[in-house]
Amino acid sequence: MKNNNYDKCENIFLDAINRIGCREYILIKERIYYYLSKLYEKSLDYENAYKCLKNSVKCKNILKNDSQVSLKRLKEKDMIYAVQKYKSLYDKMERISNLGKTLTANLDVEKFTYIIYEEIKKLVMLDTFAIGIYEKNKKELNYKIVFKNDKKLPGIVSKVEEGKSLGAYCICNKNDIIINNMAKEYSKYIYKVKINKKQLQEEAKSIISIPLLLDNEATGVMTVQSHKINAYTNEDLNELKILASYVAIAMRNLQLFNEAKHFAEYDVLTECFNRNKILSLGKKIYDESKENGYDLCVAMVDVDNFKSINDNYGHGAGDHILKSVARIMKKNIGDNDYIGRYGGEEFIIIFNKKNIEQASDICENLRRRIEKSKYNIGDRSINATVSIGIFEIHDNISFSDGIKYADESLYVAKKTGKNKIVKTS
């Protein structure tokens, strides 16, 4: 028989079931049915005990199905997130790869500079970006590419001494750096120089510096910097390291291209323009002078008694004389004037926007300086002089004829005593 306590409990449970209609409370409903079944069992009401237990099991099955659906949804959500994440990573890697191909194929320094800067800004936040080339023989980092607050700045050169700069650390250790609080972390890399509080306030707070490596040799450094603390992640570092490998190749390609271009235009011994370059440049200046009515003079310069120098002191001495004479002339001609090695011991000078008198004054200064200089050959000191022929190009005289007339003036100077200037116009 049911007593009053059983009846009271039964009514409370049944009232609770009636009040709970929402599927969200199915777990509570399952528990109520379970306890009701126990209540009926104790009161020997087995029929209702069975019914409540059956409803409890039914609620459990609903819970089980809901859990599986929720789990499935959660897994699908995780999968969608993973797919989106991997797609984002793939897109970044593809962008870096395409950028790398663009950089390694580009041989224009100015174009390369702006391409790399604009693309780096898409990868990470930055206030400063720089690429430095390591000049091993000088132990210097030559930062040829420097941007700060979107402005291209002049290059910076710094000595590579371990413990004195972040760039030096990268070069000496062939390792990268990620700093997210400069004030707290710099001493791990810069320990031979004390950075004061004012400098730390003005300097970047977060920095990534990466060595540019080729065949495990450090050829330079690439760095991005931000004035914000905690600006960079390891993911940023890894992306920039991939890009740095392309930058290293691109910088080497630029270097080789510029070297090849230099050798195509300059005489190896004297570092003056070679014959082809000075003649093509001279023709261009000649055309401009004709179009605009500028003065133009050509001078032919020949080292006197050069064969005797080679015969008496050796070809090494002759090379030394040529280099020294060329250095004196390059240093003492005008900013708009050009010099090239015409052949053997003969040079040509293009005097741009100068008349015969102005060109003669410069040539006389060159002649005196060369004559007064001493040229040390081993333990001996010898003298050298030059003869110069000058011609002012005017009217309808062609550039090639101007050279011919200057050469004829040079011939007169050589035949009438050497170490002199002969001018014609």
TrEMBL record:
InterPro entries from the UniProt entry: Diguanylate_Cyclase (IPR050469), GAF (IPR003018), GAF-like_dom_sf (IPR029016), GGDEF_dom (IPR000160), Nucleotide_cyclase (IPR029787), Rev_trsase/Diguanyl_cyclase (IPR043128)
Residue ranges of every copy of the GGDEF domain listed in the record: 294-425
Keyword ATP-binding: no
Record GO terms (molecular function): diguanylate cyclase activity
Assigned EC number: 2.7.7.65
Coiled coil: none
The entry's keywords: Nucleotidyltransferase, Transferase
Classification via PANTHER family: DIGUANYLATE CYCLASE DGCM-RELATED (PTHR45138:SF9), REGULATORY COMPONENTS OF SENSORY TRANSDUCTION SYSTEM (PTHR45138)
Name assigned to this protein: Diguanylate cyclase DosC
Species whose genome carries this gene: Clostridium butyricum
